[in-house]
Write a structure and sequence with these properties.
Blueprint: H1 3-39, H2 51-79, H3 90-110, H4 115-136, H5 149-169, E1 176-177, E2 180-181, H6 182-201, H7 203-206
Antiparallel strand pairs: 1-2
Helix pairs in contact: 1-2, 1-3, 2-3, 2-6, 3-4, 4-5, 5-6
């Protein structure tokens, strides 16, 4: 590996590790909020078995998984494996975008149990990610095709953000069905549906497979065969 390529890979790896730490903190924060009533219950108080909080935690997790996977795959494809060739300033933009997304994921986890802020932050996260996806179209060097797979992320994020806004600012926000908050239930359905569609539609990007890999060359012995 050339020194410049190795240095570039290390720089990207450092960014991926930083993003991993922030994502881990978001998961830890979300779990701490939901499990705290069970671990350290208030004396004399019943355990708060909040369906609302559990639905929010599940929505966070099913959103976070493709965000984390997709961001790392994008960084590898753009700066490590050579599937895309980015302009020299692109890594700085991607660093800022990932830092903001990591921050929003942690804030989102902190708002579990508080419907309106949770919905607003999730909608903002989806719109911000759609904006970043749009910016990546201008990060590739001139003459390279724009990756159409990224448009799937852009469209699904915008549609999902609109639905999140509907759930937060209409009568759905206060509706219940047998004690289950409708808004949080619909939110989980949208988050899960978005993730399933994301993986289904661009699976070849998440998990690229080389169908016709060259066969390894046979080993040739220096010694003559059968004494010939």
């Amino acid at each position: 590996m050339m020194p410049n390529a190795q240095a570039r890979e290390r720089s990207v790896n450092n960014l991926q590790q930083l993003y991993t730490v922030v994502v881990s903190l978001a998961i830890t924060e979300g779990l701490a909020i939901v499990l705290k009533p069970y671990v350290t219950p208030t004396p004399g108080a019943a355990v708060d078995n909040s369906v609302q909080s559990w639905l929010m935690l599940c929505s966070l997790l099913v959103t976070l998984i493709p965000f984390y996977h997709g961001a790392n795959r994008y960084l590898d494809a753009t700066y490590v494996t050579g599937e895309r060739e980015a302009k020299h300033w692109a890594l700085l933009v991607d660093f800022i975008a990932l830092f903001i997304e990591g921050f929003l994921l942690f804030v989102l986890a902190s708002f579990i149990g508080h419907s309106k802020p949770f919905f607003l932050v999730l909608g903002g996260l989806l719109l911000f990610d759609a904006t970043w996806v749009w910016i990546t179209r201008y990060e590739v060097k001139d003459g390279q095709p724009k990756d159409a797979k990224f448009n799937v992320w852009l469209v699904t994020n915008i549609v999902s953000a609109i639905l999140v806004g509907v759930f937060a600012f209409t009568a759905i926000a206060t509706a219940e069905w047998r004690g289950i908050p409708i808004a949080e239930l619909l939110l989980l359905s949208v988050a899960a549906g978005r993730t399933i569609y994301d993986y289904w539609s661009v699976w070849d990007f998440y998990y690229p497979v080389q169908l016709h890999a060259p066969r390894p060359a046979p080993l040739v012995s220096d010694r003559p065969v059968n004494g010939g």
